[in-house]
Structures are given as C-alpha cells and as structure tokens.
Design goal:
It is built from 9 helices and 4 strands, in the order H-H-H-H-H-H-H-E-E-E-E-H-H. It is mainly α. The chain folds into 2 domains: 143 residues, no CATH class; 62 residues, no CATH class.
Length: 248
Amino acid sequence: MSALSLRRDPLRLLFSRAPWAGAWYLLGYLVTGSFLFAVVVAATVTAAALSVTLAGLPLLVAAAGVTRWCADVERARLRPFGEVQGRYRVPAERGLLVAVRTRWRDSATWRDIGYLAGLWVPLATLDCAVLAIWLTLLAAITLPAWYWAPWQTVHGARYHGYQLGYFPNGPHGPGSWGLYVDTLPTALAVAAAALVLVLAFDYVLVATARLHVASARALLRAPEDPLREAKEVLLRPGPLSGTPATSK
C-alpha cells in the first residue's frame, strides 16, 4: 500500500498523494459500497426467502453471481493499492442443484458477503466520521476568505460572521457559547489552528484508509492454500535427485 504510506513528516504527508488517495477511497466506499450493500442484501434475502421452492434455485445461483460481481467492483477499486484476485469453485457437473451447492458451499462467496454486507455498517460509520472531521478542518483553513458571508438577523439587527457554536441572540447576546468568527484576525487564528489539526489528522485519515483496504484485501482475496509450503517441499528435487543410478 505504497500509495497510503505514513512514513512522512506532517508537511510532506499533507502534500503527498496519501491523504487525498485515502479520502477518495473512503468517499468512494460511502457511495459505491452503500450501493453494493443494498444490491447484495436484496439479492441474497430474496433468494433465501424463495429457496424453499424450485423457483428459488435459479435465484440462488443468480444471487451468488451478483455477489461475485459486487466483489469484483470492490477489487477494481483496490487496484491502486495492489492487485487482488478472487478464486471461486467451478461446478464439476452440469445441473442446477450442483451449481447451487458449489456456489453456496464456496467459502469465497461467504467471504464476499462478509465484506460487502457484514462490514458495511462499521466501515461506513468509521469512514463517514473521519471524512466529516477532515473535510471540516479543510474548510476551516479557508475561513478568512468567506467568514463574512454567513449572516443572521436577531431583533432586527443583522450580524455577519461564522458561528462555531450556538448564538441564538447574536455574537454577544445571552445564552451563547462557542466562537463567533466576525473579524479577519479571528478568522486567521481559526485557520491557523485548523491547519495544525489537519497536519495531525492526516495520519488518522490515512490510517483509516489503510485499515479499510487491509480489511477488504483480507476478505476479497483468494485464501491461501494451507498446504502450499508442504507441496513446494515435495516438488523440490531431493538430495539424491542428481546422484547417478548404480548398476547391480
């Protein structure tokens, strides 16, 4: 995940690709991931509800295909951070029942559902919270350019300024709390504080994107063969493989 590297000082990280690539990936998940979540849930629930009838068997096969397509969309979004390949079982014989058993006994199908549907709530909540804070801090940096534009009318008086808090009776009225940005020096001070916070929060944003990408890769990639190392050892030439045979 070199595109999401954290090995930079705060200033270099701010002007690097990492926070922007991470923000784009998280924002894309809130849109694309939410759509895929709805598609997968609708397809699987409908197929499961009708699986007690013969008409539900083709729907089960179709639901597995839809889930695989949705997982491929997420794999395509992961390509900037490394290629992710899935591996699915292929039915050994023809027949509807064989296709249903093969697809729904395949752990890859359930891993796809686990990511697309099972992790949607925690991932979407985390991504939304981190993006909201990061974008708010970025907007605060530009505050000196537009702090004067917002306004409110209180008891016939018009007040200009941006409210960081609650001011029901104007900037100096009772019952108020927070900071009312109505002068350029105040806006510059807020922008400077926001810049410092952005420099620190960039690490949170990139770390969140790395966590999300790692979760997606762990579930959407083909599972490793637990016997891979043993098979490699068996395929290697043995210590006597180069010894010439002796005649009796």
